Each structure stands twice: as structure tokens, then as C-alpha cells.
Amino acid sequence: MNKCLFRRAVWPVLGFLAVFAGVPANGFAQSARLAPPLTDLVRQFPATGQKTEVIRKILHIDVDEQWQDTTTAYIAVRIGDSEAARDYSQISVFYTSYYETLELDFANVLNENGTTIPLASDAVQVQTPKEDSFYQDTRQLVFSLPGIRPGAVLEFQYTRKPLRAIIPGEWFSRLTPYWWEDAANGQGTRVDAVRSAEIQVTAPSGKPLYLSEKSKGVYPFERKQGQGRQTLTWVAQDVPKFLLESNMPFDQGVERFVEVSTIRDWRTINQWAQSLIDPQIKTDAALQATAQQLAATATTPDEKVRAVYAYVQNNIRYIFAHVGHGGYQPHAAADVVKNAYGDCKDQTVLVVTLLRAMGVDAYPALVSTKSNGYFNPDVGMVGFDHMITYIADSGSSTRWLDTTGDHVLFPGVSMQTEGQRALVINGKDAAFTLLPVRSPAQQSAHMDLDFRHLPGNDVEVLFEMTLSGMFEQHFRSLWVYDQNHEKTFESFAEQIFNKAEVVEVGARNADNLWQPFSLHGKLLFKDSWEGAPKTSNLAVSVNQLVRLFAGIGSLEKPAQRLTPYENYTGYRLSMRATMTAPDAQYTPMAMSAGPSIRNDFFELKQNGRQEQDKYVINLSIDFPRHVTSLARYPEFYEKMNGLEDLPFWNIAFAQTATVQTATPAQAGASRNTSTDAIGSQISITRQYIDRGEFDKALEAAIKAVAIAPKNGEARYLLGMAQGYRGLYKESDLSFAEALKLGYKL
To answer: N or C: which end of the chain has fewer CB within 10 A?
Structure first.
């Protein structure tokens, strides 16, 4: 799902990233230095082991009578190890040229030998971030300081000056003692501990400055009044590293951020947004004709909403082109049609314009997506990064519409906005509306497996994956945007059975706006059984589902996990496996079955039954939304990884004639059961070997030999398992015994 990114709004959320307009041609700017000389600062904050830390951050913000701010910021960082040296070897900082100009005051390095080295003039460059389909005012200043090695301390200072305000007469910001640094080679972001920080805001006394409730009392804070000015000062000491982990709660650590604003009532934001958006919601003759054409075949509100969704999906591409606009003001609806492209703001304006022209009551809505981080509703500020359509018409069953994806299933609302706060732009609402949250059944992946014995010794498996919610969106997006999606999905199919050959993979409804995307294909097991009258063994496991869809392999080990774990959305995985006998002379029998389990983290249900010449297995696993505390994370990790160790379903097909011709009947049944048992145990052993689970393979092989000591194949598999476990003498003996029993290696 593409999303419209309001660039200027995001960077304050990251805690006042340093921003630059560039370096003056005659050298650095000469703003007063905020910190003492670097040599004095280093003596003031001596090293405490090999630790990378911001030893000092100073942020001074001076707000003028027009409520525009000039900011001077100083950062000093001690490099503790080689990893940090790589990460800080090139510093990238961002600004929006529409709203601000900035100057680099100075940048230096005090190396481990006590020598101060200034930034070289040829090691600084202003760039435009390279992003597909984005044409914007964001700029990126990249500079490399010399001598960045463990033990060095770097410093830099910048001054930002305003060009224009986002909301005239209002001021807001999100402040933090942290410095956010991009890790090397695009490996995420690091936010190191801070020894000492001071944040000071000086502003006119004419308006109160409101603070968020979460940030009150976290840092020592002082507010002073005098000579028509108000001064707010925060002092922070020994602030721990800000941890960034997958699936961490959105509000983890937000108490270390300070939201401050002149805006208390969100109606102010609503009216400001309306002033930018409403003038663009207007029709011309061409748009009116389009609305009439759509309405000719759509009479109810639901039909009209669908008609507009299809029109935008089929005619408007997603492109962000807002150079000289600052990222907030959309293009007029008529221009969006003429250009045949637009971002989320543009597409929403077009959707609302067409719906209103067709008599459907609709409004733009500002949303902060989950990827935008924590959203604090306590004080008003522009921190949204997406816009969608809210349909207020009582005759419509659809309330939210998002057209920004490429041929996304109607109504296009993604997991990124699910459950998030939205501000409906009608000029009057001060309260937020929560977007709906789908149930686990609506966030699902289901797999049908149909096993069929082919003439000869091969078995084919037809598979069909039915997807909904986040799974449908994810795989549809992969299919649409990945130019090599055939190879990508072949690799995906290989994960179902890693020893099977992928014969065919295909997709359904990739461009269908009304039916969910699904996958289907064919796998082939060559020479998977020896043919009649030998027993055939087939197997499935819940592990196939969790390996494909649950991402268990990416969980941090308990010793490495540093924050609570949040499953942001509940979801369901399910499978139906149908195994058909080779012919009418074969009868299925479950040699092993997967258990049902229920705990605080998931509920697994499994059952199987014989249906004439088939054996049918149904299993499902539900993962509810939950937050797992750090104390319970080891238990969560154990339960989740334990899914891979559960017994799998092993279905043996044996010829019924063996039982029918044997006398006496009980003895025949006993012989047949014994044959089934060794065949099943051999199959289990081979599957463990194929999966690389050699401890379990050895255990299974020992059981196989115990069942049939004179079975050459069992002895051979025991030798293989022993060899994989490094038991080479024992392995040689087992192979020799297999040869004596007539098994051909």
C-alpha cells in the first residue's frame, strides 16, 4: 500500500533531527557556540567503558512574535566501538526547503590522540532523497567527519531559520534529548544513550504553551515568565538508549518525548486542513460529465462508492509531486484527472469531489499510520502522514475508502490504518474517529492441499491459498509490484514442502477490485513411494502454516529481547489437507496426529477423519492481539517455537487385500499393522532427515529398527542419522548391517 507522506510533519516526530539548508560558500556560519570547547566537554563527561553515547545535546528554540522559530542545536557523540564508527561515518540530516533554511555552524572531531580535526569543505553535499514516485521539497545534507574511530568524539551545531509557518500564528513541536542516526548500509536506526541534554523554548507570553500529559514530570522542568516572554526548560541526565525492536508497543518509551504546542483544540487543525483542502474540491465540466457517467449505472450510495473507487483505481496512478507546496496542500480535483496521477491527498480530493457530485456525503480524513509511530492526542500538532475518505452518507455501508494502492481490494483500507485515529475534515470536529479493527477471521490465510497418487511412483499436491486482510494485501502487493513475481512465488511455494518440485504457480484476482487475491499451484514428489503393494505415507504439519505466514523464525531470543512484544493484529491460519488413496485397494490410517493446544498466545485445533478412500485433516491456529511483557516473553518464545516441534500428521495407505486374505483374521491384522508401523516409522525418519532435524531423525530411526530389526532400510536410515550426528563408527556398523540384510545403498 502506497501512502502519502507529509514530509514536514514526520521529522519533528523523530525528535528534532538536525536540518540544514547547506553550507555558505565562504565557509561555516558564525552563530554563537552553545557548548564549551570540545576538549573541555570531554573532560566534563569522561568515558565510561566502550560505550557509544551522546555526551551532550543542547537545543535552543526562539519563537518570534509571528510564532515562527529559530532553532540552534548542538550535538556531541562519543564513539565506543567499530560498529558505531561505521554508523556515524556518514551523517545524513533532512530539512524541508519550503519551510526553512538552515546553516551548519561547525563540525569537528576530537580523535583518540587528543587532536581536533574540522570538517573538510569537500565532505559536505546537499542531496534530494531518491525515492520512486516522490517529487518533493525534502532535502538531505550528507557529511562525513574525519577520524571517526573508537574513542573519538564528534560534534556539530546547526541553526535553522524559518521561511513560513505550517499553520500561521501557531507553533508546535515534539522534543527529545535523543539523536537519531541511520545505521550503515540501511540497517535501520540507532538511538544511543544521552549523558546530558538541555532543551529550552523561549516564546511570546501572548499564548499559553500546552504540554502533553505523558511528558509531565519525566524530566526536571521549569517555566518562567518575564518581559513579555515565557521560557520552558527541560534538563535530562543519563537518559537510557531508546530501543527499537520489531513488534514493540507503539507507546514504548514515549514518556521521554515532550510534545509542546499553542494548540489545545483539534478543531484548529481541522479548520486549517479544511482551508487547504476545500478549495480543491470543485468540479468543472469534465468532472461533472464523469460524475454523471458514473451515476448512470450506479443508483444507490453503495454502487456510487464502488463506481468512484473503480474509476480512481483504473485511471489515477500514485505519484507524490508537490515541489513548492510543502507537502500539505493537495492539487485540485480537475488537475488530478488531467495529470492522471496524484498522492493520497490528491486522490482523496478527487474521490470526495466525485462522490459529492453524485450526491454522496463524503469528507477527507487525516490519519497517522502505524508506521508513523506513536500518535499523542493530548496537544494539537500536524503529525499525520496519510489521508483517506470518510463516507458519512447513511445510505452507504462503506465508511472508509483508500484508493492509493495499485488495484487494491475494495475498499482499500490497510492494516497500517486499522484501529488508528482519524480526524474527519469538516471544519468542526475536535474529536477523533477510530478506524475499525478487523477480527482474526478477517485477517486470515487458508491453504487447501489435495494429495493425489499418479501412475507410477509420483505424488502430486494441488494447493490453493485463500487470503484476507493483511495477508491478501501483502501478497497482492508482491504480485503487482515485484517484476519477478513468478520466481518470488515459486520460492514461496517451495516452503510448503521443501523437497517437492514446484510444477506450477499462479494467481487469481490480481487486478480484481472486488474479489480477494489468491494463489494456486502444483507440487510434485518424485518417486515418493515404491508402488503397489508397498505402503504409501503422506504427511502435513501446522509448522507449514506458521513457517509460511507467522514469521516465527524472526523472533529474538529471550536473552536478546529488550522490550515487550506486541502482536498488533489478531489473525487466523488454517489448512485442509485431503489425501486420496492410490486406488480402491488401499485404506488410509493415521499413524501419528497433531495435538490441539490452547494457551495465552494461540489456540491450535487439529482433527482428522477417514472419508471412504480419503483421509481429511483440518487444522487452524488463532493468534489473538496481545501485548506480552518482557517477563513473559521467554514463555511466549518457547510456546511459539514449540509449534515447530509438534508431532505431524502421518497418514499411511496400506492395501486392504493383505487383511482380507489373511487367516486367521486377527493374525493377519497384526501382520498388516506391523507393516504399517514400520512403513510409517521409516517415513517419519526420512522426513526428519529431509528437514535437517537430525536428533529427532536418530530417535525415529532407533524406533524403526526396534519395530523391524531385520529391515535393511531401517538400518540404512539409522546409519544416516548416526552419521549426521557425528557417530561415525556406529554409522559404519549400521550401513554394514543394512548391506547384509540386502539393502542397496
So the answer is: C
